[in-house]
Design goal:
Number of strands of chain D: 0
Largest sheet of chain C: 4 strands, parallel
Shape of chain D: globular
Oligomer: heterotetramer
Largest sheet of chain D: none
Distance between the termini of chain C: 58 Å
CATH architecture of the largest domain in chain D: Orthogonal Bundle
Number of domains of chain C: 1
Number of helices of chain D: 11
Number of domains of chain D: 2
CATH topology of the largest domain in chain D: Fumarate Reductase Iron-sulfur Protein, Chain B, domain 2
Radius of gyration of chain C: 16 Å
Helix content of chain D: 55-70%
Distance between the termini of chain D: 47 Å
Chains: A alpha/beta, B alpha/beta, C alpha/beta, D mainly alpha
Amino acid sequence: MKYAYYPGCSLRGTGRAYEESLLAVFRSLEIEAQELDDWNCCGATTYLSVDELTSYALAARNLALAERERMDIIAPCAACYLVLNKTQRYIRDYPDIKTVVSRALTAIGLEYRDRVRVRHPLDVFLNDIGVKAIAAKVVKPLKGLKVAPYYGCQIVRPYATFDDQRNPTTMDRLLEACGATVIPYTLKTRCCGGSQKGTLPEVGLDLIRYLITEAQKNGADVIATVCPLCQFNLECFQKEASGQLRDAQFRRDPLSIPVLYFTQLMALALGAPGVTIGMERSLVPIEPVLAAKEIAYA
Amino acid sequence: MPETRNSGNGSNGNGIRVGVYVCHCGTNIAGTIDVKAVSEYAAGVPGVVVSRDYKYMCSDPGQALIQQDVREYDLNRVVVASCSPLLHEPTFRRAIDRAGLNPFLLQMVNIREHDSWVHLDKQAATAKAKDLIRAAVRRVALHKPLQKRRVPINPNVLVVGGGIAGIHAALTLAEAGKHVYLVEREPTIGGHMAKFDKTFPTLDCAACILTPKMTTVGSHPRITLWTYSEVMKVSGYVGNYRVQVKRKPRYIIEDLCLGCQECITACVYKEGKTPDEFNLGLSKRKPVYLPFPQAVPQKVVIDPETCIEFKSRKCKKTCVEACGERQAIDFTQKETLEEIDVGAVVLATGFRSFDAARNAYYGYGRYRNVYTSLEVERLINAAGPTGGEIVLRDGKRPQAVGIVHCVGSRDANTNRWCSKVCCMYSLKLAHLIKERTGAEVYNFYIDMRTPGKGYEEFYDRLLDEGVHFVRGRVAEVSDWAARSSEEGKLIIRVEDTLAAFVRRIPVDMVVLSVGLEPQADAQAVRRMFNISCSSEGWFLERHPKLAPVSTFTEGVYIAGACQGPKDIPDSVAQAGAAAAEAMALIDSQFVELEPYTAFITEEECSGCKSCIPLCPYQAISFAEEKKRAAINEVLCKGCGTCVAACPSGSIHQNFFEDEEIFEEIEGVLAYA
Amino acid sequence: MRNRQLSPPPVPRGAFEPRIVAFFCNWCTYLAADLAGTSRMKYAPNVRVVRLMCSGRVDPQFVLDAFAQGADGVLIGGCHPGDCHYQEGNYKTLRRYHLLKRVLREMGIEEDRFRLEWISAAEADRLRIAVNDMVEKVRALGPLDLTPKAEEIQEEVTV
Amino acid sequence: MELKWTIKFEADRDREFARWISHTVGGERIRHCLQCGLCSASCPLSLYMDYTPRRLMHLSREGFKEEVLSSASIWLCTACYACMVECPKKINITHLMYALKERAILEGFYPKRFPIPVMARQFCRMVRSSGRITESWLILQVFLRSAIWRLLGMSNLGWRLFRAGRMTMKREKIQRQHEIVTLLDSVAETRKELAL
């Protein structure tokens, strides 16, 4: 089966490593995904707060485009995934929204008939490919690598049906299939602050600090994320966050831990041949950890 | 005196003289429906001789009014437009009966439940009332005088469920001289109450008040106690039910076992290995066991799942030796089916407590020191796994305990309803924990609900004792520390809604006050006894206020928590009521069955036999000699399925004859 | 932006008001209707209820007669499958319902005008929703016009 | 100490606002709120909030517009949906937060140079002009308009990201930009027409 790949804006900016590794995984799992023709910004969570109606129309354009291709959409970015799903629901539930959207689409010669499914890579990998098939393709098992699986908010909450909203496990199972050790991580769905870091820094920092200290306390070597914004927040502000440690107990270990996309770890294990999986784009280098675990990395 | 109106046309030729009576029901009907206009309209309908409206038709003066008219205008048909026939049809039938009219020459029109109460538009509601009355007048004209059938009642009663409700009902009935079959699924009676330590608000010990009743049940000459048994099949009808009961093998011959428990001591297992059901897995039991010391009957049970003899057939059978010449142990025992005939049934199947694991954020099953309220009842109980010591799994005493209310209650994600008893039992647990451990005790509640005798006073007492009350629904219980001071504790995260900020409260022990749910097999039981369930799955009473223990199936009564969350006093009260209803039925000696049976006009029957397979009660037979079908009136329950199916239209149903229904249909539609 | 989906638009006075005849089982749907009353729910006043002991008593002729006499819709309310007070009457109803649906189609009577609902004694809200929904649908369809066929049905019924 | 009247009079209530909140998308069940505070407790941001989400729900359904729209809480919401998933009355709290933000922006209920609305506006502009977002530019513009001084603090990080190829100066743009413009205008039109 063929998928319409919807990168979303972040994967063309701070989240490039996500796209690179994702495509690598697609290739090694032989998943046929073609980029959605002339996709546009989904409106993200920002747009919703200024002009709800318009944001649905924006998202709907992408839905309609995919529908025309008769393909499921794969949306790796948490925000995109949520917005696209939400749009589908609200068009279903609210006649007014439906009218607005369909008129707007007609104006640009498109039509939305609610025939498209919005999927997340986690969902596709686990349910369409399957843990067994993936494990079979692993060439470089991530032996002894302790991973804290961080799902964040908008993948499982509130609309995802492919996993438990309170205690999701899809990523855990995928990474275990790759030979990694997934550590218990109580904050796996606690928010990272989203765009707050940009707007209300002190707030963002506190949340980031919580998440990282907890991961380190549980002995994680690396945090795996499914969302470009989470990855950005957790990786780029570790130093600032350490500065904020208010409690002697935690001041012992300053924050420093690699934060990767789960697809980077998968690509690594699947030994994606001769392609970049964006490791070099990390600000906190992963190489030392891998070296320590004797996991070969070209 | 309400005004009278003589309709111009009066009797409609064929001697039919109808009186129409429109009830105001105070403002219940008159508030929405223009009753004057309606009765005026009725007066003009062909066949109507007199039409009146009155404040309360069901009142004595109201009934007198009808009876007087019946004589004065010599009416031979009556239409009463008031509430649902299920409420007052009997009343008015009696009324016209006393006036010398056959009770079945009455037709009721439901203009309250089906009209005034459900519509806002007065015009539309009034129009609807007129339509319905017109139809009733046309229908009643065709009514024929009918007689109710009288069937004798079997004086025995079946009580299902041996919790406090079932026990109380059984005793009440037995004391009144009825023979009772008490069927309990578990190996002992006692139900949930037997697991409790103290009872609120008086704090008297549950065992002390329950066990005497249990032993009386066990020894009562008029009670047949079948534990470890389940009802499989129910047939028949009010006064004459036939019930099939499955008796599971306990591999002990009950009559021979003395309950000396020597077999238990002798068992080849030196220590128990199986989680003890009665202690909710907080302790272990052997394959041969007595559920708990005061169990009734005092007969041990052998669990074939864990008994070596059943696994390998090579056990030393030290238990058999211990039992000696009594020879009460029988490994070959098979399950048996018993058939009993009873006149009435009391269902007291109780409730099941909410599975705390369903709320992932409270960490039940993930953190060892998160308990359910029922588990804590066992911890506190002197006969429990810790001998009444309130200790954590590591044997330490908790310094701080958090009691989380409304777990699985008042929550659209699990159960919407309020479980009614949790606030009070949480207070009780809070008191006992405080008293025995001196720990800091926190109650996290949404609303404190303490309606009941002495309940609010008990709440005051707890406030005195310095127990903390934080108003807010707990969001999560986690072991994740945000401060070093929280390390190694369970942290409860909650908004203190009265202080209006979020708090993190570290404790050693968390008690989840789980709500009450319908039994897992409530639906199956309901089907078996042909009664209804509320949308939540509780057994449905016939009327929420006026028939709280009756069901829509005559002769089947409900008591205790199977009808909805209830505390002990309420359950007992209801059990008494149910028992009384059953007695009232039995002592009336005869049931009167509605005469709505089907009958065949032989000459019209073509003998096609198509009706015969349709009847679920095998009431229809085929008279070979006459080549005609025949209906056994005693077996017929009057559903009318065969009537609707008869190709030659030779089957008719009393009170629901085709013509009568056609008149009604055409009546409601034929508006001017 | 209003959440309109919750409140159906009010109907202007004098507009076409459908007339719907309902056959309710005495043990479930009729009780549900009583419950709707005791709990003061509000629903469209277009339905006229005929009480029967079991939905299995509904003779196809009743339905045809109702339409012939000018009903714009017919609603049958019975117990959920497996819950019949008389063990299996409602299964018979279901079978007849499907046959009858075909007949009605022949006669050019739209699907939405004839409806079978399983409503237990406890499901007052389900009843409210079913009635309102049916009234809306039938209102949308407009009055039933059988003039071409009416006579023959009339015969059929009165044979 | 300075003492102020904290008492509220019925006249202080904005009935229109109360009506609006319960009729806006997501507000269907706000009247069911039983004030249990589960939203606040499950909210990761509540530790900063002047009014907890629970209080916002009540204040808005009662129509205390000033308090609600000038509260910092509505800006703290990161739309993590924890409250909505947990709410025992299934109230769509997250969406109501959006609605409140939208209204607050509409009525100018926020401090000068407050980054969030600025960010939002820049975001919309960029979508209209190029159909996609180029984060680097967005961030740049936001800081230019709200808090220039913070740029300095960020410059180091920015440079590192730039070196890692995660900060491109190249603007992302879709081909059929005109479609976006038409789309946006059409929405505006319909909104006027249906007075939404």
